[in-house]
Specification:
The termini are far apart. The protein is globular. It is mainly α and 193 residues long. Helix 5 packs parallel to helix 7. It is built from ten helices and no strands.
Length: 193
């Protein structure tokens, strides 16, 4: 484990609260170990790590997010989301593969929704030209996936990009792209019922 990941993990363990952990585990419905660290503690820990281990480039951020996501602890994964939210301007369409893996294994709205809303949505909106076209194609592929969480992510991202008023879009405009994504999600979901 890298020094930055070790720092975040140890700080979050120090912030654990068994009462909060029990309530949060019930809310999440299982599948992940919950420490009971507050969202504020997660955000503060990530902020402190970014200051302590600066400068972290794009590859460092991606590696750190992957390290944090690799385990089964909710707060570690939430720290990965916060890290990506904090550094979304440094990401590009090449990071969508890693994020797709996070969505596939996330399986909790508390992780998947902020990834879509606060990481992938702004990432897609910020891209232009070929990068935007590749990102839109990737999200459209997600819309056809057998995995319901990946399809849900595609729909959330399309909704977010439209709601944020993104300009243009590489494939003929944001609204038509979002309609294609939503239609593909609906068709794929109907076909799997």
């Amino acid at each position: 484990m890298s020094a930055a990941a070790d720092f975040i993990v140890s700080r979050l363990e120090a912030e654990s609260d068994p009462y909060r952990a029990e309530a949060e585990a019930q809310r999440l419905g299982g599948g992940l170990l919950v420490l009971g660290a507050s969202v504020g503690a997660v955000r503060g820990t990530v902020r402190d790590a970014l200051h302590k281990f600066a400068p972290l480039g794009r590859d460092d951020i991606a590696s750190l997010a992957s390290e944090l996501w690799a385990g089964i602890v909710f707060e570690h994964r939430l720290a990965a989301v916060v890290l990506l939210q904090t550094r979304v301007t440094g990401l590009d369409n090449g990071d969508l593969t890693r994020i797709e893996g996070f969505v596939r294994s996330g399986r909790h709205a508390a992780l998947v929704e902020p990834l879509c809303r606060d990481v992938v949505g702004p990432l897609v909106r910020a891209l232009d030209g070929g990068g935007r076209a590749k990102a839109e194609t990737t999200i459209e592929r997600w819309a056809h996936e057998p995995d319901a969480w990946v399809r849900r992510a595609a729909s959330l991202i399309a909704d977010h990009v439209v709601a944020a008023g993104a300009d243009g879009g590489a494939t003929g405009g944001v609204e038509p792209w979002a309609r294609r994504v939503r239609a593909a999600v609906a068709a794929a979901s109907d076909g799997r019922r």
